[in-house]
Amino acid sequence: MSPKYRTRAIDAEIPYEIQDVLWQLFTILKQSQKPIDYLHVFELSIEPTTQRQTIHHRQEVPKYKKTVHVTLTTTKPMHRTIWIIEEADYGMMLFPSDY
Description:
Blueprint: E1 4-6, H1 8-13, H2 16-31, E2 39-46, E3 53-59, E4 64-70, E5 80-87, E6 91-96
Parallel strand pairs: 1-6
Antiparallel strand pairs: 2-3, 2-5, 3-4, 5-6
């Protein structure tokens, strides 16, 4: 598995529990042997009725979209958009969308 890197903004603003879920979603897709894009977008929102974290995971080429609902145990859900960019020489990098 490639090394994982995070920006300072991710470390400062995104709780580790959420970061871990995003890495897991990315890893599951990568291990599925399906073609994957270098850019993955994770749109985080709060499910209104249950207050669970909703994560919309997508990529452009080939088209992929999956929505999961996660019950967080150590942090509160949030609204954010986060990217994972995979580079062969640099591993996987987690970026906030406002970078």
